[in-house]
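so my prof wants the structure for this chain in the tokens format not the other one, which i didnt know existed until like an hour ago. anyway here's the sequence
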Amino acid sequence: MRKVWIEAALNGAWSRALQPGIPDTVEAIIAEGVACARAGAAIIHIHAYDGGGPQTFDWQVYARIIEGIRAQADVPVYPSYPSILTTNIDASLSVADAAARFAHIEALAARGLLEFAVIDPGSVNFTLMATTSAAKPAGTYLNPESHVRHALGFAARHGFHPAFAIYEPGFTRAGAALARAAGVRTPIYRFMFSERFAFGFPPKPYALAAHLALLEEEAGPAPWMIAGVSADIGPLIGQAVAQGGHIRVGLEDAPLGTPTSNLRLVEEAVRIEPSPLQSLTCGRRSRHCPEPKPQDRRPGGKAWRTRGLTSEDQKSYQSPSAAQSRRDRSNLTPIRSPPGIRARYDRRSSASTERRRAIDPKTVSINTGLGLDPQLAAL
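here's what i got, hopefully its the right format
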């Protein structure tokens, strides 16, 4: 039975002025993390706040939050790290000082409080979709390769999986190349869709298909999930689950001003129905696409362009990196298995109507969050 990981991103750096519902005290973050884990989240992502002020990167505050959640729910909880933007670079860390930027991560790892190494493998402009000619230029979110290599070195030393945020498709290529060079464990690729910002892709089916085709070529069967930056990824969740992907939800990712809660977003994700007849690829990840015509098997043919690689195409055009990734994964061993729950999913159409039907429990289940999923542990 395949497990679907739901990650709950509780708050982010927005502040309550932009996202009023986020938890911004230690106690509130712990309470929401525990509630989301009990509702079905398998991973919790947090930004640390202490007393309702601006976010902090004090490792001791992070430790209080992580230990508080883990005392009640056995789930991985992982932190953020300081953003370096061209708009605030003078008041932030030196671009050259990777060690200072990741110091709190090192401190948490030294105390056994981490399972992931969060890394954004590239830099990106945060241009607004609604920009104007008179608007102030947007900031650039900086992740120099020296910082990416520093974080990957940290992941290699501790045996952590890198968690890559993929803002642009090129991040997948760069992340995969740098991960191979660093000799780290299999990364998790998180595709970041946005409606507010003009990087990458909007949350549309063609965009997920493009991400998956590139990931297959660069990293083979690496795990992946969908997420957003001020975006509603709800319409993609059913397709992502059917494709073998995982899900991140929460107020950090939701459109700014979202009135619902983190708990409700997790509960809605648990109920989303996979969409097997809308699968995006006809390759290894899906069994529901029609067999392409012979003339469409060639590179550039219809099946190649719109649905990714067929099984035969994968054999013919498989990249060395994908083959290497499969060999690497064959040597890994699961470490523990949590209880799971049989789930029903709830599909939301574009008209916001809902329809439920039972899902074959032999094919999909939702991780309860009570323990580390064996597939997650065995990457």
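also thought this was worth mentioning. The CA atoms of residues 1 and 302 lie 32 Å apart.
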